[in-house]
Amino acid sequence: MPGQNLPREEAAKRAELLSVASYDIALDLTRGEETFHSATTVRFSATPGATTFIDLIAPTVHSIVLNGKDLDPAEVYVDSRIVLGDLKADNELTVVADCAYMHTGEGLHRFTDPADGETYLYSQFEVPDSRRVFTVFEQPDLKASFTFTVTAPAGWTVFSNSPTPAPTSGAHEGTQVFAFSPTERISSYITAIVAGPYEGVTGSYTSVDGREIPLGTYCRASLAQYMDAEEILDITKGGFAFYEELFGTPYAFTKYDQVFVPEFNAGAMENAGCVTHRDDYIFRSRPVEARVERRAVTILHELAHMWFGDMVTMKWWNDLWLNESFAEYTSTLATAETTRFTDAWTTFQALEKTWAYNQDQLSSTHPIAAEIKDLHDVEVNFDGITYAKGASVLTALVAYVGREAFFKGIASYLAAHAYSNATLADLLAELEKTSGRDLGAWTKVWLQEAGVTTLRMELDTDADGVITSAAVLQEIPQGSPASLRPHRVAIG
């Protein structure tokens, strides 16, 4: 029985067999408090005669139709997989199911605000949970265009990756339908559905390519009076201008909404054009500046993902660290250079780097570029190594190749793999071209080995206490899996 896991080998085999063109997804959020209606039509090409599977987690599957032929759900749907056999060169699959609302922060989370009794929904799909909302080939390298049509109660607003359309009347009284335009080619884990009586403030940003990018920041109605939307939008606009220049690449999507949502398990999520943040960042009393700074870094972290993670996406989850480390590094850089928090690197050293040092000395440490064999491995790698040590090591890489060469390589990498997938090797190849450095040895000791080494000064002095010689010694602590590594140290 496959359960709900997906080994990397199976994902790679599936990616070799097929290419996904598009999804049409119809969701009805008016059917009750426990489940919602989900109908998915997916169009894909495949090796003729091949057999594969598509992913879905649903309490009830009503029908499965592959290329006009009805399949019996009792025969082909097991655990989280629908088996698809005798595929053609071009295929169309339609699956109708009832999916479950979640209260654990996975899939489509449902929350009722105790302050006013209003209900709010939001999705959280990373790592493998879009399959809790619609039928999908759930892996990052099978990108496609997604078209959502959502039926919601009257009075609600629905957000997704594409701009929110004007709703039309639903088939039943008290309902309305939001028919979204197709998305760019993206991975399923960064698609999004957010729905409810959210309130917010809108603005816009003029991109370097002349487009006017609509911006919005939203939260539940009971918190709206506390939302400092002007500061949130100002930080966002500053980040847009900074990143477009730094990356040499215009923003890749059509709009940018930020929704502050309740009971969120993470700090934020980089859904393409529809970012979700935990609503702890809506401050109900005067916050300390450190808390406001953390919010600014988080806003800029998620914005950085629009380029690095969303437009260009990892091929498999072993490069998750690269997504997160890059966003952590660039968001700190952007905070220091575009906001009033000019000491952001001091905060980074005190918090992030300390977190990394502590994590790297535990028995549970692992290389930054860890081997991810399946989905279970991914879940345990959202840690201080993936985020903080990775970002710390990237600062060293920037110093090693030079800031100009580093971001010139980033621009080439983004251009070469736009709306597609890439690997660490692809990025390193671009950085080697722009810097002229061989990064093979650096990658081995800094990214593929875990653990810390220690640096200490060894001094000799004369009778008057004058230093006559000095040396920096690097040592490997007992039990550390690390090797001796190249360092650049400033003395004096």
From TrEMBL:
Keywords: Aminopeptidase, Hydrolase, Metal-binding, Metalloprotease, Protease, Zinc. InterPro entries: Aminopeptidase_N-like_N, Aminopeptidase_N-like_N_sf, Pept_M1_aminopeptidase, Peptidase_M1, Peptidase_M1_aminopeptidases, Peptidase_M1_dom, Peptidase_M4/M1_CTD_sf. It catalyses: Release of an N-terminal amino acid, Xaa-|-Yaa- from a peptide, amide or arylamide. Xaa is preferably Ala, but may be most amino acids including Pro (slow action). When a terminal hydrophobic residue is followed by a prolyl residue, the two may be released as an intact Xaa-Pro dipeptide. GO terms for biological process: peptide catabolic process; proteolysis. One of its GO terms (molecular function) is alanyl aminopeptidase activity. It holds the Pfam family Peptidase_M1_N. SUPFAM superfamilies: Leukotriene A4 hydrolase N-terminal domain, Metalloproteases ('zincins'), catalytic domain. One of its GO terms (cellular component) is cytoplasm. The keyword Zinc applies. Its cofactor is Zn(2+). Residues 233-446 form the Peptidase M1 membrane alanine aminopeptidase domain. Residues 104-190 form the Aminopeptidase N-like N-terminal domain. Its EC number is 3.4.11.2. NCBIfam families: pepN_strep_liv. Belongs to the peptidase M1 family. This is Aminopeptidase N.
